[in-house]
Amino acid sequence: MKIAIGCDHGALDLKNTVVKHLQDKGYEVRDFGTYTKDSCDYPEFAAAAAKAVASGECEKGIVLCTTGIGVSISANKVDGIRCALLSDVWSAKMTRLHNDTNMMAIGAGVVGTNLALEIVDTWIGTEFSGEARHQRRIDKVMALEK
Question: Per-residue pLDDT tens for 55-65?
Fold first, then answer.
């Protein structure tokens, strides 16, 4: 699986930890930056990762900033993206089971490293349930983009 990832300066350390964690598990990671702790604008990096997912270049995407809020809003502006802001394992599981999210956001200032990695693993490891009621709701959400 190919995973897009992007962050701002506030989440660089956590992004680098997540990248290594995913690569150690055998995932291919496409890193859209940022690569330094210099102040930067999160929408650029979140949008680049989201566009890679929306185009099919990557199967899933992860975006990070200090709160996770800005990058999740930015990613969700890209047609075809369903990005969930996650800070607990149960939500990571449920957003894949019921919402078939293709991106997740996390706040580096909100969750610690160990919890973040557990959230990432749960989110990536959970498949969409495929239930008709959930697909119907997803279709209605995605129709809002039109």
Answer: 999 999 999 99
> In which residue are the tokens 């270049």 written?
57
Domain limits, the chain: 2-143
Which residue(s) pair with 5 in the sheet?
31, 62
User: Is the CB of residue 71 less than 8 Å from the CB of residue 115?
Assistant: no
How far is the CA of 46 from the CAs of 34, 58, 97, 126, 132, in angstroms? 10, 14, 23, 22, 30
Q: Residues, the chain, total? A: 146
Neighbours of 141 (CB within 10 A): 11
* Catalytic, out of 7, 40, 58, 65: 65
Question: Catalytic annotation on 58?
Answer: no
**Is 9 among the residues known to form the active site?**
no
Class of the CATH domain delimited by 2-143: alpha beta
pTM beyond 0.85: the answer is yes
Q: Distance from CA of residue 84 to its chain's centroid?
A: 7
